Amino acid sequence: MSAGFVELWVYLSATPLFGLTATLGVYVLAQAASARLGQPPWANPVLFTVLVLGALLMATGTEYPVYFSGAQFVHFLLGPAVVALAWPLWQRRAELRQRWAALVGAGLAGGLAASLVAVLAGWALDLPASTVASLAPKSTTAPVAMGIAQQIGGVPALAAVFAVLTGLTGALLAKPLFDALRLHGPALRGFALGTAAHGIGAARAWSVHPSAGAYAALALGLQVLLAAFTLPVVLPWVLARLP
Asked: Whole-angstrom Cα distance, residue 44 to residue 172?
């Protein structure tokens, strides 16, 4: 049995199947463990998948490009997954039509607040200008954050790291924070989580309540649009006025 496992490992590690098998296998186990524990915020499947995969790559000496040659198949599915988020919004189109002005206003205020707080914190810590610019789009999804960072003088790779860390932090801390602030209602919680923690926060919202997930997906989409149009204009103006 041991010899068979070694042969399987040698085969998988030398082919794109390694990244795909490792990603799916670890995530399924992390999701099952989270469900078994009652889906507490600290048992976030995405967080534990990242940690376990990182440890696995380090332990086996596997280079990231080798891993991603297989994991890119999962990465490709992100596009269809995002498009699929439109269906629950279509189901709620009547209530969204009534609230559209408030939702757009809340999304704009939340997105700008998240960016400005990050920029001011980076400036207060005397971080390099490129790092500060990379912090600004942290509440958008990683691909969009990378594109915005490149336009405003940031480092795309660093912006992606900040975006992932923001999503994980939001998914972990949202529930206790909402409880402390006495924010109730799945729509309200979901929209706030999607605004602050983009896709990872939306995934957490989906696991809690369908309405929370739908509004989180809406907030995610709004942040992508609003950040893409506002940050390249507003952020250079802000940075130019910081001493």
From this structure: 7
